[in-house]
Amino acid sequence: MASRPVLILGSRGMLGSDLTRACTEAGIDNIGLDLPELDITDTARLKEAIQAAGAVVNCAAYTDVEAAEDNAAAAFKVNAEAVSRLGELAKKAGIWVLHISTDFVFDGTLQRPYTEKDTPNPICTYGRSKLAGEQLLQASGCHWCILRLQWTYGTNGRNFVTKLLDKARSGGQLRVVDDQIGSPTATSEAAKAICCLIRHRPEGIFHFASRGYTSRFGMAQFILDQMGLSNTLIPCKSTEYQSKAARSANSRFNCNKIRPFLDGPILPWQVPLKRFLETL
Ligand SMILES: NC(=O)c1ccc[n+]([C@@H]2O[C@H](COP(=O)([O-])OP(=O)(O)OC[C@H]3O[C@@H](n4cnc5c(N)ncnc54)[C@H](OP(=O)(O)O)[C@@H]3O)[C@@H](O)[C@H]2O)c1
After folding, report:
1. Degrees (nearest 5) of the Cα angle 204, 190, 107?
2. What are the structural domain ranges in the chain?
3. What whole-number distance in Å separates Cα of residue 56 and Cα of residue 273?
């Protein structure tokens, strides 16, 4: 019997679209579904989709961090309750589930990069909903894997890079926080890492991010320099920035655990970001 395809949920999102492309390029048979044809909170439709799958990668999520502060129920419905049912259905079907999570499960107070063993302590509603999803998936008893990502950007979505460029092109000075540290990570690179996990199907939590770290300010400076934009950048602090959801000061990941599963070295953050900017 031919092996069944990998089901990619949220396949038209920023990560899901790059993952669909990467799987196809890597020769991994896949089926992508997203809203409106599949709402992962619709259990009957989810069950139907899973029955045709050999494995599932869940990139579908409620990702509006700011809106989640006023819409906690909606965020938990997609990021936690649906993930719990996904786990239960996957257990019954006997298939492996790779669920995508985030650095927002941490409070960012640690003075070193986060490992998979560090204790989560989310500081905003989105983070709490994503942590609940992780915990419910593990409790479902299915063959689970959780991949946490941070500071992602890609072609098919609004992200720090596109928002910064929009503001820069409308002219003037830009204020960017210099007290949030992470690794700008291309969804195309995350997608390649996911293809490797699909091949190995390990169980457990993994962190993936580009190599090296910078602040949001450092990332903004790199983007403006690469794009030849001369806007003045002014560093500021997170406390000066109007935001409903609290943001982590430290989004750095230790990626040692995933390394043995990858095809090649993790690239320094500047390399994929330069490539991405060249496509714009
Ligand atoms: N972006 C980041 O910086 C970042 C960092 C770390 C981790 N992550 C995680 O990475 C994963 C992928 O996020 P992304 O950046 O690709 O975000 P995204 O572009 O918003 O993708 C999420 C996708 O899920 C879909 N979706 C939302 N609700 C759904 C539902 N009920 N049923 C089915 N599909 C639904 C969205 O559709 P609509 O667009 O129509 O709503 C969208 O296509 C998420 O788990 C996110 O938490 C993101």
Report:
1. 60
2. 6-159+185-210+253-266
3. 28
pLDDT tens digits along 99-127: 999 999 999 999 999 999 999 999 999 99
For the entire predicted model, the pTM comes to 0.98
CATH of domain 6-159+185-210+253-266: 3.40.50.720
pLDDT at 2: 63
Average pLDDT over residues 68-73: 98
Q: Is the pLDDT of residue 1 over 50?
A: no
Q: How far is the CA of 13 from the centre of ligand 1 (A)?
A: 6
In this structure, the residue with its CA closest to atom 8 of ligand 1 is 102
Task: State the Cα–Cα distance between residues 66 and 174, nearest whole angstrom.
Answer: 21
How many angstroms does the Cα of residue 2 sit away from the middle of ligand 1?
30
What positions carry a catalytic annotation? 126
Q: Tens digit of pLDDT for each residue in 19-47?
A: 999 999 999 999 999 999 999 999 999 99
Task: Kindly tell me the sign of the dihedral angle through the C-alpha atoms of 61, 248, 189, 6.
Answer: negative
